[in-house]
Amino acid sequence: MPMAYNTQEEFHLLIRPGDVGHYVILTGDPGRCETIASHLDQAHPVASNREFTIFSGLLDGEPVSVCSTGIGGPSAAIALEELVHCGAHTFIRVGSSGGMDPDVLGGDLVIATGAIRAEGTTREYAPIEFPAVSNLDVTDALRRAAGSLGYRYHVGVVQSKDSFYGQHDPDSMPVSPMLNANWSAWLRCGALASEMECAALFIVGSVRRVRVGAVLTVLGNQTRREQGLEDIQYHKTDRVIAAAVEAFRILIAQDRN
User: Exposed/middle/buried for 151, CB within 10 Å: 0-12, 13-18, 19+?
Assistant: First the structure.
């Protein structure tokens, strides 16, 4: 069961129970929150502090909120913890990623079933052997949503990291042999894309007994560039937002039944 929540204002998010819905769309960039909230009825700002900006509104009559998490696992974990304190129980991360598998093209969606824990936040929650996996109901709703919208999508494992430049400029790092060897191994294992928050959100969701899923837009694919293949660039968020909103419609209808 989710943690019992109290009536105190949360330290970072500056919210209380009643300020947010049971369903929350999470996004890294505070600048995306208002755009995502425009898909809700009666959307209004709730709070803004540091990297955390929150809007609430209605989707099919159900209270739904949007919350930014900033970049990386530590702040994402804080946001999820405090939202759970205030009664939220179902979350979809809407984010961006870099494609890893050559079949993953810019503009595609990646629906994460699990995340490689190449970051530090989750080690303070669970032993490294415990997997970072998404909630099955949320993942299925995202798959159905992407299909119904006609978007090209992939379902599978992503890599979550702490260092953006450890990925994009590994040879400049003193630990470059390790970084390059791990990257090669993850590619051979079938990792689809690289990002920075899924592992933390999935582990915190498991520990706090709430539902968490993730859908990512692919900006481009460095593997394709390295192989001399066409690397389509796509920097819009329209598809990934539409898929998350449609997935919440599916989940809200299922939960009501």
Answer: middle
Q: What is the DSSP string of 18-32?
A: TSS-SEEEEES-GGG
Which of helix, strand or coil describes residue 37?
Answer: helix
Q: Are strands 23-27 and 62-68 parallel, antiparallel or unpaired?
A: parallel
SS3 state at 123: helix
DSSP readout, 130-176? S-EE--HHHHHHHHHHHHHTT--EEEEEEEEES-HHHHHSGGGSTTH
CA–CA separation, 198 and 117 (whole Å)? 9
Predicted pLDDT at 1? 42
Q: What Å distances lie between residue 29 and 14, 72, 168, CA to CA? A: 18, 11, 20
Distance (Å, whole) CA 111 – CA 94? 10
Grouped pLDDT means (10 residues each) for the chain, 257 residues: 64 97 98 98 98 98 98 98 98 98 98 98 98 98 98 98 94 96 97 98 98 98 96 96 98 96
Q: What is the pLDDT of residue 5?
A: 45
Q: CB 71: neighbour CB atoms within 10 A?
A: 15
How much is the pLDDT for 7? 67
Which of these, 45, 23, 68, lies nearest to 246 by C-alpha position?
Answer: 23
pLDDT at 119: 98
Kindly tell me the sign of the dihedral angle through the C-alpha atoms of 71, 96, 198, 254.
positive
Task: At 253, give phi and psi (nearest 5°).
Answer: -65, -45
Q: What pLDDT was estimated at residue 132?
A: 98
- Cβ–Cβ < 8 Å for 93, 27: yes
Report how far apart, in Å, the C-alpha atoms of 15 and of each of 48, 87, 88, 195, 248 are. Answer: 10, 11, 12, 27, 22
Q: What is the pLDDT of residue 6?
A: 57
